[in-house]
Amino acid sequence: xxxxxxxxxxxxxxxxxxxxxxxxxxxxxxxxxxxxxxxxxxxxxxxxxxxxxxxxxxxxxxxxxxxxxxxxxxxxxxxxxxxxxxxxxxxxxxxxxxxxxxxxxxxxxxxxxxxxxxxxxxxxxxxxxxxxxxxxxxxxxxxxxxxxxxxxxxxxxxxxxxxxxxxxxxxxxxxxxxxxxxxxxxxxxxxxxxxxxxxxxxxxxxxxxxxxxxxxxxxxxxxxxxxxxxxxxxxxxxxxxxxxxxxxxxxxxxxxxxxxxxxxxxxxxxxxxxxxxxxxxxxxxxxxxxxxxxxxxxxxxxxxxxxxxxxxxxxxxxxxxxxxxxxxxxxxxxxxxxxxxxxxxxxxxxxxxxxxxxxxxx
Length: 362
Hints:
362 residues; Rossmann fold; 2 domains; 6-stranded mixed β-sheet; 17 strands; globular; ATP binding; nucleotide-binding; ATP-binding; P-loop_NTPase; ABC_transporter-like_ATP-bd
């Protein structure tokens, strides 16, 4: 897959004289100054790149501009300034007809509220994008059934949407996007309307599908835990601007400012950090023989702590070729999990919380 998404200096301004507003923003004006003139700056100077096969998560509170940004990526909203290119093609320079063609074949969108047709069967809903493309009925039904099976809905093809649970309806929406074999998936708060357990299941489903399909995905959410679980890279938005872009570890361990830090203070670090973050890459000769307890760079912190607590030696980190790429000393685990006051603690050290001693668990 050679596709890549790139946004360069995107602005979206609603109201009078938007071009003048963009110039003011470039010169340092903020949102509040523009609001006095009845102008709303929804997205301000947003730039980022999404590599092929990557899940890029845009995270922010309500009103931060994330959904507006998403709608500029497939041309549902025209940028006031800036460009969007996909697979080397400048989408902002296309005619309406050309843009519709790109949306029908290269870009699919999964909405928050399912957007299923109640008068169409599950199979017909999943095949709708192919119907728009003019794909013959037999082929579109075959491809729809394949997509439904990937999403765990084999056997439900002839059912009606109102016969499905909310999680199953969202799976139909995901299957519809997959059936077109689009290179880019745009997902706008796609799981936020679901109950927590179903939401977790859908996150698992997406991650499992991504291992096989390796789509390029832009995922919008207001939930930092969801962002850190799904995102290969994360962009944090505030008041229309992207204030930090990086991996989950970057956001968690190196927040760009107090705003980002305030988001991360309640995140369970043990669910985000991996062996790659804490391992020593320079291995001495006496550390090379670390016994049979080994991990990979992607081993979760919780599992790493459990192994380190039961063995007397450093834990070896092996790559996919079983080559030694690092070791984790128990002392390196200190500092990545903090107590209530931010004091570094190791994963097996006791700590005082609410007057009671307890084990600081990863």
